[in-house]
Amino acid sequence: MALIVQKYGGTSVGSVERIQAVAEKVKQARDRGDRIVVVVSAMSGETDRLIGLARAIQQPPAPRELDVLLSTGEQVTIALLAMALDALGCPARSYTGAQVQVLTDSAHNKARIRDIAGARVQADLDAGRVVVVAGFQGIDEHGNITTLGRGGSDTSAVAMAAALNADECQIYTDVDGVYTTDPRIEPRARKLPRITFEEMLEMASLGSKVLQIRSVEFAGKYKVPLRVLSSFQEGSGTLISFEEENVEEAKIAGIAFAKDEAKLTILGVPDQPGVAHKILGPISDANIEVDMIVQNVAAHEQTTDFTFTVHRNDYTKAMDILRATAESLSAREVLGDEKIVKISLVGVGMRSHAGIATRMFEALAREGINIRMISTSEIKISVVVDERYLELGVRALHEAFDLANAD
Amino acid sequence: MALIVQKYGGTSVGSVERIQAVAEKVKQARDRGDRIVVVVSAMSGETDRLIGLARAIQQPPAPRELDVLLSTGEQVTIALLAMALDALGCPARSYTGAQVQVLTDSAHNKARIRDIAGARVQADLDAGRVVVVAGFQGIDEHGNITTLGRGGSDTSAVAMAAALNADECQIYTDVDGVYTTDPRIEPRARKLPRITFEEMLEMASLGSKVLQIRSVEFAGKYKVPLRVLSSFQEGSGTLISFEEENVEEAKIAGIAFAKDEAKLTILGVPDQPGVAHKILGPISDANIEVDMIVQNVAAHEQTTDFTFTVHRNDYTKAMDILRATAESLSAREVLGDEKIVKISLVGVGMRSHAGIATRMFEALAREGINIRMISTSEIKISVVVDERYLELGVRALHEAFDLANAD
């Protein structure tokens, strides 16, 4: 008898009919003999509706009160799902984040979970009930309602699974698993039956939006086996696990990409300690997130060239800041390009295998794709290329590493 | 510096604009130097929307889960009102029933308040904040969310005022006070500047729907001065107080009435102990509420005639039950009339004054109105008349007791 935490997102519970379909799925799992805890999001559209009400009143809305408001979204879903289960003859009980004691810090709108008191849930499971818990929300030490920020329901589910020492945390979503790359770009993309946590983290952080990155970190930290499945189709989805099998085969998990990037370069800055901080400090002070950072020795001696990428929305603001910095540092020139994308090859296999990077660069060169920046980590190689090469680059790499065929 | 609890109903907070108008009103009161606690209902229409969702899933909805669902209605309002106050520069904090610890029994959908922990609210008031509390909801001793049933927000406000030992509980509604009778029937109806609790109880229970009757009982029990005011107009409304002034003047507070009544009579039942219970037991077992009860010695000896009234919706069901009872009691006959109304004269003055009943009957007789039933209490005389005499009867009594003119 396994203990399973299932999580259903906003689309999966987006209507009365879909809530009833989720109830059927949950009941089936329980009828197989498993003990089930369900974590749900707000019905799709509800959070936006509530934010609309708040913004009509205050801009920006008071963070504490916004959490009181938004947390009603999941509260509606838990009640309706518990009713739907009850109507199927499956005893169920709903709990808000506050009731189940999802203790968070006090950072309203983006709180982090500190602890979950599992006792109450455990008692209901022992009594044969399905427990339905509101995702995305918690309570701070003073009893104030908090929310984890958008997508936080995945994290709630993983944290609940960790607190209950569950056998598996299943994230039901509108895709049926993790693919070698986006099937909309490469139709031959293949669903991975399993992927390691490290690979999933890289895939998630590089723009593969199947799972919220924080939930993957959380699952990795607490060793919760995570599975991504479809709410609407049958299938066993993708298991995210700790075992690294067959690393000898130079396994590449997949190709992630990030659109909407922009690149900024400052040329000819004095090559001395502290210069990176002088350049990036004002950028992060303006709340702009920096992604890739590359520094090269410049052609002129005693100076260096410095390039970094930001989200395209932040490009203009970042450019203004960088120009001011350039002036104060007496830099030679500032360059920018907002028509670039990042393509990344991810796989634990590259740890033990040389030659992956070469094969990657070769495949891109064969298609005449010019590489503008390169950055690597232990299990990932990222390149920045012109926006127009996105689809071509992804397909070339998918082919070069034979990802359409299971290894 | 007075401590005032203000309560705004669903219509008063029915839109973003109305919530902002309420915030202005609250801020004005605070700027006058008072400490303010605001209790609010769900935005009008919201509770019906939620009930619609629940019914689409389960009929009837599981009571515990229905409370989880419905309590989101007020939670949305408290957050929005706190934002609106904050936007006006008036520091505010919202609390759900669970957060403020409105402790109730476990009777879901119709819970009764047992206790309110005022400490948290008091601390915020001390810190200069307006406290916004969700009406209609509480929490039971096991931490389950409960609701007080429709209209329960009035009771929440009164209970909060009692717990905080407030100077006044102000109920803002869509009428500007309590009238001598319904102005739609008698345009000369006059707003009462004050009325006693007993009178208000009789008025409320007799169909004057300004206040929820349970909240009046609660206010009476805990000696909370209650004031009814309009959300939309200026004015000091009607104060419901304990002082009975000028009772020498044979003061009549007003004329209440109940439409949609129906009358059932059973003739010739054996006049022996327990017969009333035999007649009314099956009626109340069927969850039908009985209003007036009149028993007379019948023309035939050893038997009695028994008449009672019920809501018109229950008439057919009650008639079927009564016919079965009549058979088992060998009663002579069963009669019914579903076209009757009840008109009542209410006033503490009648305690010390004889002749009020006579004046009432005389006024009705003058208009040719036949009285079908009479029932009296210490401060009330009710008569049942044919439905078609409702308006005429009310106006005749309003005139006979000179209610259009302040005494």
TrEMBL record, chains A, B:
InterPro entries: AceGlu_kinase-like_sf, ACT-like_dom_sf, ACT_Aspartokinase, ACT_dom, AKii-LysC-BS, Asp/Glu/Uridylate_kinase, Asp_kin_monofn, Asp_kinase
GO molecular function: aspartate kinase activity; ATP binding
Catalysed reactions, semicolon-separated: L-aspartate + ATP = 4-phospho-L-aspartate + ADP
Pathway: Amino-acid biosynthesis; L-threonine biosynthesis; L-threonine from L-aspartate: step 1/5; Amino-acid biosynthesis; L-lysine biosynthesis via DAP pathway; (S)-tetrahydrodipicolinate from L-aspartate: step 1/4; Amino-acid biosynthesis; L-methionine biosynthesis via de novo pathway; L-homoserine from L-aspartate: step 1/3
Residues at which ATP binds: 7-10, 173-174, 179, 184, 209-210
A Pfam family it matches: AA_kinase
Domain ACT: 264-339, 345-407
Keywords on record: Amino-acid biosynthesis, ATP-binding, Kinase, Lysine biosynthesis, Nucleotide-binding, Transferase
GO annotation, cellular component aspect: cytosol
Family as reported in the entry's similarity comment: Belongs to the aspartokinase family.
Listed name of the protein: Aspartokinase
Highest classification ranks of the organism: Bacteria, Pseudomonadati, Pseudomonadota, Gammaproteobacteria, Chromatiales
